[in-house]
Each structure stands twice: as C-alpha cells, then as structure tokens.
UniProtKB/TrEMBL annotation, chain C:
Keywords: ATP-binding, Cell membrane, Membrane, Nucleotide-binding, Translocase, Transport. SUPFAM superfamilies: MOP-like (SSF50331), P-loop containing nucleoside triphosphate hydrolases (SSF52540). InterPro entries: AAA+_ATPase, ABC_transporter-like_ATP-bd, ABC_transporter-like_CS, ABC_transpr_MalK/UgpC-like, Mo/tungstate-bd_C_term_dom, NA-bd_OB-fold, P-loop_NTPase, Transp-assoc_OB_typ2. This is ABC transporter ATP-binding protein. PROSITE patterns: ABC_TRANSPORTER_1 (PS00211), ABC_TRANSPORTER_2 (PS50893). The keyword Phosphoprotein does not apply. It comes from Occultella gossypii. One of its GO terms (molecular function) is ATP binding. Residues 4-235 form the ABC transporter domain.
Length: 311, 300, 357
C-alpha cells in the first residue's frame, strides 16, 4: 500500500475527515441521527409556538366569515386582551392559584412529608408515600371525578363527614376547591424530590451540627436548607410552570361559576374553542408563553447566581 | 504529648450546654411525648387528606349500587361487565393504548438516536440546543399552544386521527426524553464503544449491540414515563379528537360524567379503576426497579 | 509480523493543545513496549492514536507494512485492553470473548469454539456463563485479555493494565501478563505511570513528558543512564538524589563537600560548570567515620522499608536520601558521612538538564 510513502520520511498532513468521536459517528451521521427528532419537535412544538405570534395578530375565528378569510388586525387582539377585565381577572386568579397551590401548598406539604418521614421506616412510610404518589399518577380525568364525588353537594363524602349537607363546594368556593385539588394532585413531585435531596445531605454535616448542640430547627436552617438550595430552586421552577399551565381544574369547575375559577389555561380554551375566537385565544396564548419564558429565564438567572456563575 | 491541651480555650469557655441548665427529665419526657403525639396527628391528617378521595376509587367499583358517598361496598364484580356493554368504553381503552404505545415507539426511536448522537459527538452548539429545547418544551405547553396546534393538525388533515395526536404528544415529550436519555448515555463508559469500534463494529452496530443494551434501564424508564404521560393526557386528545369512537379513555371518561343526566356510577367507577390501574402499576414498577431519577421523575 | 512505526506523529486537540508532539518511534515485532510518564504526558493519547481512537493530526503511523494513519480502528488489526476492561455488562464471558468474532461475521459454532479455547488458555473455564459483574478484578482482566487476543491481533495495546487490581494481585498479574505476552509473541504496547511496572514488564521503555519522548531504552539503560534529570527523577522506586552543584578542582561540590566526579563525566566537564549531581539512594553508603569524598550530614528521618531503611540526611538545606541495609540503620540525630560510588553517580547539565555522563 502506501508503505513507500510512509517510509519516505516525515510528512506534514492536516486531516479532519476521519470521525474523531468514540462511536466513529462523525458529524454528518450524527446530524442524520438527530434530524428526525428535531424535525418532529420543530413541526409540532416550535412551529405552533411561532405560529401563535402570527395568529395572535389576526381575527381568525373557528366558524363564520373570519374562519375562511382571517384578516390581519395587528396588535388589536393584545390591546383588547390587555384592556379586558376578564383577562386581568383570569391572570389574577392564576397568580393566586400558582402561589397558593403550587409554590406554597405543594412545596411546603411535599417538603414537610419528606422531612417528617426521613427517619421513619416500615409500613407507615410506605402507606403515606404510596397514597401521595397514587394521587399524582392517577389520570387527571379520574382524579377530577374522584373530587367531584368527594365534593358533591347532595351525596358527597365530605358533606357526609362534616355534616354540611347541601354545601356546593365547587360553586361556593371554586378557587379553594381547585387549589386544594391541585395540592392533592401535585404534592408527590415535591415529596419525592425533597426526600431524595434530604437523603443526599451528608450525614457527617448533620452530625457535626448535633455535636455542637444544634436542635432540629437549627439543623434544618443551617445544614439542610443550604444543602438542598438547588433542589428547592428546581422544584419551585417546575411546580410554577406546571401549575401555571395546568388545564386539569377545567375538569372540576370548567372555569365556573361565572369565570370565578377561570385560570389562564381555561380562559384561553373557552375563548378559543367554545368561544370560537382563535385569533384572540392565540394572542392570550402568546402572553402566556411570554410569562412562561420569564419564569424560566428568571429561574436560570437565579440558578446561575446560586451556583456562583460556574457552568 | 506535652500534656498541654491542644485547644486550651475549649476547656474553660462556657459552652452552650453549660450555659443553660438542661431541662429536667420529667419535662423532657413530656416534651418528647407531646411531639410524638403531634407528629402522629399530623401524619394522620396527611394520610386522611390523600386517602379520602382515593377511597371511592377502591370501593365504588365493587359496590352493587354505588353512590357518590364512600361506604362499605355490597360486594360485586358486575360493574366491570358494564364496561363491555358500553359502546365506546373498551374502544377508548384501546385508543389510549394505541396512543400510548404509538407515542412511546416514536419517541423512543427518535429520542435514542438523537440522544446518542448528542451524547457522543460534539456538534457545535449542542448544549445550547439541548437547553433551548428543554426550555421550549417547558414553556410551550399544550395549553399555551393549543390554538395553533389545533389549526396545524386541521390544516394537514390529521384532525380526528390518532396519528395527529401521537405526533403532537411526541413533539411535546421528545425534548425531555432526549435530555433524560442523553444523561443515561453519558453515563455509559466510552470504553465500551471504543472497544466495540476497535473490533470493527459500525456506528449502528455499536448502538444496537452495546449502547441500547447498556442503556436499557434508561430506555425502560423513558418508555414507561411516556406511556404514563400519554395515558393520562386530557387536553391534546380532547382538542384534536372530536368523535367518541376515536377518543381515548381520558376524554371519554370526562364525557361519562358531564354529558347529559345522571352519570352511570356503575360504569364510571369500574371504568375509572380499570383506567387507573395500569399507570399506577407502571409507576410503582419503575419506582421499585429504578427509583426516581430526578431529572426524570417529571410528570407534567 | 508487525513492527509499529510512528513518524513525526502529532495529535493536536481543538484549541491547539498538543497531546502528542512529534513522536518518532519504532517498536519491534514481538516486543513488549512500555509508554511511561506522569499523567498528562501524552502516553495514553499516543496509545489511542495507535489504536485509531484518536485521529492523527500530523505524521504517519505504520503497522507491519501498512500505512494505517487514516484507517478506521477496526481495520488496523489491533486489539486493546482498556483500563476499566470495558467488558459489556449485558453479555456473559463467552459472548464477550466472542464479540470481535461476531463483528467479523464468524459463524456461531466456530465463535463458541474459539471463545472456549481462548478462555481455557487463560483459565477462564467454568466462568464462561458468568456476567462481568460476577467476576473478581483479576478474572475481569483475564476476560478482557481473552477478548483482545481472540482475533489473533497483530498488535496488542494495554491501557494501564494493572491499575485496577489491588496491590497483592498486581504482582501476580504482572508475571502472568509477561508470560502471556511471551507465549503469544504479539507486539504489545502498554501504558503505565508506574515506573516499577514498566521496568518489570517491558523489553523497552519510552519515557514521555509533555507529549514528547524523553528516552527510549531497555529498563537497564533507562534506570542506570537516564538522559536527563526528568527521567532520572521519574525512574526508581525511591527518587534519585539530584543536587544543584558546581565543579571545582576536578571534583563536584555537593552542598559544599567535594565529591569525586562521576566516572562517566570525567573529561567531559571543566571546572566552574553549573551541574546537577545525581545519585540513587540505593547506591549511597553510610559511614560513621570520616571518609575521603564523603559528604558529612545529619540523619533527620528514618523510614522502614522492611529489609532496608530509607534514611534522610541533611547537610544544611540539602537533603540526601539513602537506602541502607536494616543492619546498618543509624538513629535520628546521628552524624556521619554519605559515600557515593563514582561509577554509579551521574552528572547533568544544570541548564539543559541533559546527562553529561
């Protein structure tokens, strides 16, 4: 072969054509491997997001004249959304919903359960964990019906237990209902996350704190919380995003009565699909995407600052 | 040793222990028991809160005449026969299965190819791309993009088809799947592949002989996770499937209790249980076998 | 029939860092060849370049009479045992050994047979159905070796072959490895950071530093005539004493004490030259009475090495270490004379660090 040419002495060559990764894949083949997934994501995730921007600027409707020939209306939709009391009301409800059920309810309850059970072994721990987890895993349609049954005005178990027959919880207290419901559904995530975080706190640090006489609260404050700061952050971000975007309360109250529990996700749906105003719905969706983006970026900032600017 | 204490100040400094006299034994016992009782009561309340709604799901399906109130059932299995009698019930479970398995197959194939390439090849901008995708998938939720998604699927003629739902769901979970799988694949020692490569294995052989078998826990995890996601998903099929024949259980079940008159509690209770058991079983299986990996224990 | 020749071989990483910086070396057929150096010296990169796992930036690589510079790893006829053995956890021992044959499309029957034969040769019979996780470290290593030699490679590459074994097993495995290599007669290149391993196993050693070869030679050459102070300091289980000195009156002034010029340096260095005087602790003697050419010093620390002791003696700021027989053990605080053997001492140029003689 090229023995002569190798023997002819040192050659100077620059190469880049042979794959230089462990699998010998090379960039081109790697691209081929990645492309189908990217195409699918592009078409069904990125494109709808981008398309929302355009749709939000049309008077597109589900039916009627504007369904066939949507007109470009510029920022009218945004203007009317932002001047519409119903939108601000919905945003306000969403804020309460996210703060109370997500950030406070799920996180605190999840952490408390994880903290309380951290040294417990045996059946009590399994029973509680299993139940909390089951609430999370059960399909949303089932979970919401379970709550419809529990809260039913006439024959609901809750009324039977409390002796408050005839109380229509979902109508009289719609926000409280969906908040409690959401805590019930979502606490498992925080519980699981925090119990794995707590398990990872170095025992030697806890022991050193105990050696110098720190009590439970002091250990929590000085050793545990600093150690699980990253987990708290992750948990808060995910819980915030999920709670902000959840559609499940619709299955309980359908936003009612009279929009009293019409959080943003529900509001978009009722505006766009039953209400038929697709353009308007898209405009509100875009505002929602914007808020999502702000939450996510805000989290990234905090996360970066927390990790001391390192990658 | 010279006999000098190494830290002379530690010997005579008033420590926290000596400063405050320790509480008497009796008071400590009381405090101890009080906190035990409080602890048990609190856990009891938590237990009740999570158990109460669940009780209906485990009693009503076996009750000959179920009501919305939880009670000791009048044991029967007849309710389950109702599922077969309903026109759409069995079909909807089949639809759920089709959606779940279809999405899983698609996501697993595309996801592992992409994750592998991203894990092993330094494609420029790889990390940025991954994070952008992950960010995107967490901000572009079914809810926020429901209008254009509905339109897109209508435009390409996939409205009312399972394939349309599968594509949308797959697009939504793929970034997370790629992220999780890349993590798993990153943890496979590179020497496995290098060694296969030394013996002349091609990239595809390396993937099928070495990477896939070693990443099996990750793949299993992602598979189960995807099925659970899809199985319970309400919004996407609710939006894109308008006929009862094509709807999965999550949507059909909702129509059981919202459309017209008194809900048929016999059917509803039995159906709820049959619909819930597979995902519960799968979750606990994954939890037992692999534990929750936290980038992955994500259920949105 | 496989000589390995590298010609001005360079491996440059993105960013301009050179892992291997112009290496010319010829490894003879059937030779057991060691690449030795501290971590980050480029020895593993060189090994992986030979394997084809790293692409070569400049220069050429020849195995046998083929230029393999641009060939895929699978086409080079090399086999490699990785530091972590890289046994596939989902395959049993037999499947692991037979895997290279599977890739080469050898039928199932012959594959099994070869795996069994090779496995027997490495006393793996009885373990063939086990998974790697069920094997001890030594067994895993033998499986990895079996898999590597199953295809009768022209070249066998070993990356830190003994580093994953515990200390006692390591000696046993070392002997075993040398026997196996002799038996197979395959050209073998191995990487190690352990000089004792290199000295014990290799026919020849290449000492590397910062991507460049420092010295290539037999263990004896590298040990007794290191070409520079780096090699001198790196080889040997107790590091060589290296003392900045100056020549004067036909002698070396080691910390002020006149010491005879090393035998090899006589006539090669004039007076007033800045030099580094080197002597291995094993070649120094201790005298409790004044001796001509001895260096007076005070014993500060004694470390027991079993049958011998490592004595640290100070003369001012200069520390000298000696390995003495257990019978000659001095006590800390003793004063005495360190006596070098001129035949075994070395002199290096202080500026270039190269060996004068």
């Amino acid at each position: 072969m090229s023995a002569i040419d190798a023997a002819a002495g040192p050659r100077l060559r620059r190469r880049g054509r042979r794959a230089d990764d462990v699998a010998g894949l090379g960039r081109v083949r790697a691209g081929v491997f990645v492309a189908p997934a990217l195409a699918l994501i592009g078409l069904f995730l990125v494109f709808p997001a981008v398309w929302t921007i355009y749709l939000g600027m049309t008077n597109y409707r589900l039916t009627g004249l504007a369904a066939a020939n949507p007109e470009f209306v510029g920022l009218d939709n945004f203007a009317s959304a932002l001047t519409d009391d119903a939108f601000w009301h919905s945003l306000w409800l969403t804020l309460i919903f996210v703060l109370v059920s997500g950030v406070i309810g799920q996180t605190l309850l999840g952490f408390s359960i994880a903290w309380a059970l951290r040294h417990v072994r045996g059946w009590a721990k399994s029973v509680i964990e299993t139940l909390v987890l089951a609430a999370w895993v059960v399909p949303a349609s089932v979970a919401s019906f379970l709550w419809l049954a529990l809260l039913d005005r006439r024959t609901g178990t809750l009324n039977a237990l409390l002796g408050t027959e005839g109380t229509a919880w979902l109508i009289e207290y719609p926000m409280v209902s969906i908040i409690v419901f959401n805590v019930w559904v979502g606490t498992a995530f925080s519980m699981l996350l925090f119990s794995s975080a707590l398990a990872a706190v170095p025992p030697s640090q806890m022991e050193s704190a105990r050696m110098v006489g720190a009590g439970s609260w002091q250990q929590l404050r000085d050793v545990v919380l600093p150690n699980i700061r990253g987990h708290i952050l992750t948990n808060t971000l995910l819980i915030t995003l999920w709670t902000f975007n959840t559609f499940t309360p619709y299955l309980l109250t359908a936003g009612g009565p009279r929009d009293e529990s019409s959080i943003l996700a529900v509001y978009i749906y009722t505006t766009a699909i039953p209400g038929g105003q697709l353009g308007m719905g898209a405009a509100i969706s875009l505002i929602m995407l914007g808020i999502n983006l702000v939450i996510a970026l805000g989290y990234l900032r905090v996360a970066r600052a927390a990790s001391g600017g390192s990658k | 040793m010279t006999g000098e204490p190494l830290l002379p100040q530690a010997a005579d400094a008033p420590g926290p222990r000596t400063a405050a006299p320790p509480p008497s034994l009796g008071r400590r016992m009381v405090r101890h028991y009080l906190s035990r009782v409080l602890f048990v009561v609190a856990m009891g309340l938590v237990l009740a809160f999570f158990a109460l709604p669940m009780l209906w799901l485990v009693t009503a399906p076996f009750d000959a005449d179920p009501s919305l109130t939880v009670g000791w059932p009048d044991w029967t299995l007849a309710n389950f026969a109702r599922i077969a009698e309903n026109r759409y019930a069995l079909g909807s479970l089949r639809n759920s299965l089709v959606l779940g398995l279809g999405t899983m197959a698609l996501v697993l194939t595309l996801g592992s190819l992409a994750a592998y390439a991203l894990s092993r090849v330094r494609i420029p901008g790889r990390d940025g791309l991954l994070y952008a995708l992950l960010l995107l998938s967490s901000i572009v939720t079914g809810t926020a993009a429901m209008v254009p998604t509905f339109q897109l699927i209508t435009q390409i003629g996939l409205i009312n088809t399972q394939i349309g739902v599968i594509l949308v769901l797959a697009g939504g979970v793929l970034p997370t799947v790629i992220f999780i799988l890349k993590d798993f694949m990153d943890s496979i020692p590179k020497s496995y592949e290098e060694s296969a490569r030394l013996y002349g294995a091609s990239p595809l052989q390396i993937l099928t002989h070495v990477v896939v078998p070693t990443a099996r826990p990750g793949l299993a995890f992602v598979a189960v996770w995807t099925v659970v996601q899809v199985w319970g998903n309400f919004l996407v099929p609710f939006l894109l499937l308008r006929t009862p024949e094509s709807q999965p259980a999550a949507v059909l079940m909702y129509t059981f209790y919202t459309e017209g008159g008194q809900p048929d509690l016999r059917l509803l209770s039995a159906f709820s249980l049959v619909f819930s058991v597979p995902v519960i079983a799968m979750y606990f299986l994954v939890n037992r076998r692999y534990g929750f990996r936290f980038h992955g224990g994500i259920k949105s | 029939m496989a000589v390995i020749t590298t010609t001005a071989l360079v491996k440059e990483y993105p960013g301009g860092v050179r892992g291997v910086d112009g290496v010319d070396v010829t490894i003879a057929d059937g030779e057991f060849f060691a690449l030795l150096g501290p971590s980050g010296c480029g020895k593993t990169t060189l090994l992986r370049s030979i394997a084809g796992l790293e692409s070569i930036t400049e220069g050429a690589l020849q195995i046998g009479d083929r230029d393999v510079t641009d060939l895929e790893p699978g086409e080079r006829g090399v086999a490699m045992v990785f530091q972590d053995y890289a046994l596939f956890p989902h395959m049993d021992v037999a499947d692991n050994i037979a895997y290279p044959l599977k890739i080469k499309r050898v039928g199932k029957g012959p594959r099994r047979q070869t795996a069994t034969e090779v496995g027997d040769g490495l006393s793996l019979d009885g373990l063939m159905q086990r998974r790697p996780a069920q094997l001890s470290g030594g067994q895993q290593q033998r499986v990895a070796l079996a898999r590597a030699v199953a295809t009768r490679p022209e070249v066998l590459l070993l990356d830190e072959p003994l580093s994953n074994l515990d200390a006692r097993l390591r000696l046993e495995a070392r002997t075993f490895l040398k026997e196996l290599q002799r038996e197979l007669g395959v050209t073998t290149v191995f990487v190690t950071h352990d000089q004792a391993e290199a000295l014990a196993l290799a026919d020849r050693i290449a000492v590397m530093k910062a991507g460049r070869l420092q010295q290539v030679g037999t263990p004896r050459e590298v040990f007794s005539r290191p070409v520079n102070t780096f090699v001198a300091g790196f080889i040997g289980s107790t590091p060589m004493n290296l003392v900045e000195s100056e020549t004067a009156d036909g002698a070396v002034r080691v910390a002020g004490a006149p010491v005879p010029l090393p035998a090899g340096a006589q006539g090669r260095v004039g007076d007033g030259a800045k030099v580094v005087w080197g002597a291995r602790p094993e070649y120094l003697k201790w005298s409790t009475t004044p001796v001509e050419g001895g260096i007076e010093a005070e014993v500060s620390v004694i470390e027991n090495l079993g049958a011998s002791v490592l004595v640290s003696a100070h003369r001012g700021e200069t520390r000298l270490q000696l390995v003495l027989d257990e019978d000659d053990e001095p006590a800390p605080g003793d004063r005495g004379w360190v006596l070098p053997t001129p035949r075994r001492s070395l002199l290096f140029d202080s500026e270039t660090t190269d060996l004068i003689g």
